[in-house]
Amino acid sequence: MFTLLGFTDDVELQVCLFLLFLAIYIFTLVGNLGLVLLVMADSRLHNPMYYFLSVLSFLDACYSSVVTPKTLVNFLAENKAISFLGCGTQMLLIVTFGTTECFLLAAMAYDRYVAIYNPLRYSVNMSPRVYVALITASYVGGISHATLHTVATFSLSFCASNEIRHVFCDIPPLLAISCSDTHINQLLLFYFAGSIAIFTILIVLISYGFIFLAIPRMHSSEGGQKVFSACGSHLTGMSIYHGTILFMYMRPSSSYDLEHDMIVSVFYTIVIPMLNPVIYSLRNKDVKEAMKKLFGKLVCK
Q: Strand 163-164 vs strand 2-4: parallel, antiparallel, or unpaired?
């Protein structure tokens, strides 16, 4: 049995944080699950780009749901305990969804490259066989990576303390309370998380590099401006996500500051899933039109 210490023992601050996190969670679920339903309901959104976006939205809703409900309960409860099995399950799911999102963002960047760099062959190069394989590979990579770290972490002994200075079961705070030698675990974390981050970032940068090279060849300056704007917002979202991942896991253990790292972890597990629908979808013309059409049907009924 572990105890999640969380942010603070101040009751008033806990109530304020509870209300803030609850508002973020509701917004996250409405935004992400709403986008999934919108893609399913509107035939104009039945193409690979929006299938990727709907998978990303589903991932973000799941990602936030693994962390936020337990965090909300702990803000108001005196007993902040989490079982050994519950902690292991939470870690497995968090690393699965986090890693899958890294791979999926890379696949989305490649999809945009295929669509913009060679639009005439888009339907051939991004056929259902291709985009389903990319989505499946993202999940397989996420599950494999999560299984490796979960098994490695929970093979350690936790005899020194059962108090985790965090709001959820993450790898660094668990390594910090283990009384076993964690050198191998830290190497696994550094090299595997680092390799995945660098590999996916390179795919994103190369894909968008080719996209930016293709912009001057576009006949319409307005079209090039729209592509540049959309790609800019996508790159912003990807940079924020990958930046926090790199900061969290590609550092020597001596530089860990659990209080500071807890805030960064909350940002990429709770705040970023709330922002992604805005970054990737709500600025999109097709999504806006689909929303107007759906709301119009609801009002007429």
A: parallel
